[in-house]
Amino acid sequence: MFSPCSRHLFLSTQLRRLQSTLVVAEHNNEGLLPVTQNILSAAKKIGGDVSVLVAGTKCGPAAEQISKASGVSKVLVAESDVFKGFTAETLTPLILATQKQFSFTHILAPATAFGKAVLPRVAAKLDVSPITDIIGVKDANTFVRTIYAGNAILTLEAKDSIKVITVRGTAFAPEPLEGGSAAVEKAPEGDYKTDLMEWISQELTKSDRPELTSAKNIVSGGRGLKSGENFKLLYDLADKLNAAVGASRAAVDAGFVPNDLQIGQTGKIVAPDLYIAVGISGAIQHLAGMKDSKTIVAINKDPEAPIFQVADHGLVADLFKAVPELTSKL
C-alpha cells in the first residue's frame, strides 16, 4: 500500500511521464535562430519528453543543430517547397498532423512574428485558448506572463488538455546545443499546400550589425534625435560597441528610421547586457520592450524623464554633445 505522500509522488511522476512538448523551431534553413534555444529552456521547465519540429525547404543544417541539444528526445523534419516562407497557412496543418500522431500535451513557439502568426491559428483549430508571451513556468499547467504593458504580472492556470504557448525568449536562458544526440525522423507526411495564399518573395535588409533581438549590446534612439540623419551619431557609437541599433515608437512614427528597429510593446522585446537609451523619454510602451536589459544607460537632457527611473546609469546632458564625446573615448 502507498502512503499518502508516496502515492502523491507516484502520481506526479506518472503525470510527468505522460507530458510531452513539441517545440516549433524558428530557423532560416541554414541554421537555427538563437531564440529557439530559449524556447527549449522553457520546454524543459515544463517537464516530460521534448520533441522539436523543423519545417522548411532545405532545413537539414537546422535539424542537425537542434539534435545536439541536451534533453531533446527526437527531431521531426519536414522538407518541402510548400514551406517556403514559413507561412502560417502551410505550417498549421503540419503542426496539427504532428500533434494528432504524437499526442503532445504542450506546443511551444517563440513570441516572435513567426510564432505569433502560427500558434493562434493552431490553437483555434484545436479549439483551445492560446497562452501568449509567457515569461515563466511554474509547472506543466501554470504559467507567468505580463499584462498592462508589463506593469503587472499574471500567473494563470491552463485547463485545456493541450496547451498552445508562445514564449518570450528573453525571459529564458538559451539552452546550449551540446550534450545530446536526439533521433532525427521524418514528420508526418501529407498535403500541406494551401489555396489561401501564395508565397512570392521576400527582401531582407542586410546589415553587418548584430540582429536586434539577439544582440548583447543595443544603442537606441528616440524623438530627441530630431531627424533620421542624426541617427548617424548612434550608428557610430554602435560600431564602437559592436551593438545593434534600435528606436522608440516615437522615432519610427516620425519617419526617422524603419519600423523593424522599433523596440517596445508593439515592437521587439529585447534584453541585452547593455542598453543605451539616447533621447528616449521612457514611455511605458517602450519600457515594456527593454526593461529586462541587464544594464540600462540613459542619456537625456530632461532630468524628469521617466527613463531615469529604470536606468542603472543616467546622464543628464545634451545628446548632441554627449554621444560624440562618448564615441571618441571608446
From TrEMBL:
Residues 21-203 form the Electron transfer flavoprotein alpha/beta-subunit N-terminal domain. GO terms for molecular function: electron transfer activity; flavin adenine dinucleotide binding. The keyword Flavoprotein applies. It comes from the Eukaryota. The keyword Transport applies. The electron transfer flavoprotein serves as a specific electron acceptor for several dehydrogenases, including five acyl-CoA dehydrogenases, glutaryl-CoA and sarcosine dehydrogenase. It transfers the electrons to the main mitochondrial respiratory chain via ETF-ubiquinone oxidoreductase (ETF dehydrogenase). This is Electron transfer flavoprotein subunit alpha. It comes from Parnassius apollo (Apollo butterfly).
